[in-house]
Amino acid sequence: MTNGEVLDLMYEVFVLAVRLGGPVLLISMLVGVLIAVIQAATQIHEQTITFVPKLIIIGLILVFTGGSMLKTLQDFTIRIFQMIQGL
């Protein structure tokens, strides 16, 4: 493998990590900010109030998009193994 191929592969790894983790992190952040605004307005500062809704939302996201995330990761892994076999 040349240096260019390795750099392309690393770029693909980073893009894949953003595609897989980005939606979960972004929605979890939005839920956290929304709950923080509600807590600031009501002056209720309980830690579990932010944790439980985030946990439920992340679970729902993974239930509905987990299959496509797994398929994307499987396709990438198969392509990596094919590249290794081609050497």
Describe the structure.
- The protein has 87 residues and is an all-alpha fold.
- Helix content is 92%, strand content 0%.
- It contains two helices and no strands.
- Helix 1 packs antiparallel against helix 2 (47-86).
- The radius of gyration is 19 Å and the shape is elongated.
- 0% of the residues are buried.
What descriptors fit this protein?
2 helices, mainly alpha, 92% helix, 87 residues
Strand content: under 5%
pLDDT average, as an integer?
90
Number of helices: 2
H-E order: HH
Structural class: mainly alpha
User: Over all CA atoms, what is the radius of gyration?
Assistant: 19 Å
Please give the alpha-carbon distance between the first and last residues.
Answer: 8 Å
The geometry reads as elongated
List low-pLDDT spans. none
Give the beta-strand count.
0
Biggest sheet layout: none
Helicity, as a percent range: over 70%
Task: Provide a quick synopsis of the model.
By secondary structure, the chain is mainly alpha-helical.
Give the helices and strands, then pairings.
Blueprint: H1 3-42, H2 47-86
